[in-house]
User: Which sequence fits this backbone?
């Protein structure tokens, strides 16, 4: 089972969490001024990263709070968890390539 490290509650089973999509999206300040194409791109277009990806998660069956995580999409390993509003942490590129997680930052799997 995948364990996700909620920044507020600690490690919990993945079943308690909901995926929230790409992190660090900035909502347009005046959406009514966008044309249909620009609005559709904001609503639906997301990056499709192979490697380290910043994503939003919600501890839906716990504290209910949103937070961000860095996950390597090639290995499905989490590299870091951080609160919404905090700066995206830097992580070694080697961790993204090998799937080796930096100590103390990553989610882990248990048998
Ligand atoms: Zn929580």
Assistant:
């Amino acid at each position: 089972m995948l364990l996700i490290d909620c920044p507020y509650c600690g490690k919990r089973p993945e079943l308690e969490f909901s995926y929230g999509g790409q992190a660090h999206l900035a909502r347009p300040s005046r959406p009514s001024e966008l044309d249909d194409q620009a609005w559709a791109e904001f609503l639906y277009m997301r990056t499709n990263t192979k490697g380290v990806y910043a994503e939003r998660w919600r501890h839906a069956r716990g504290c209910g709070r949103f937070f961000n995580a860095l996950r390597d999409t090639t290995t499905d390993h989490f590299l870091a968890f951080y609160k919404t509003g905090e700066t995206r942490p830097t992580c070694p590129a080697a961790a993204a390539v090998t799937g080796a997680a930096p100590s103390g930052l990553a989610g882990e799997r248990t048998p």
Observations:
- The first strand starts at residue 2 and ends at 6.
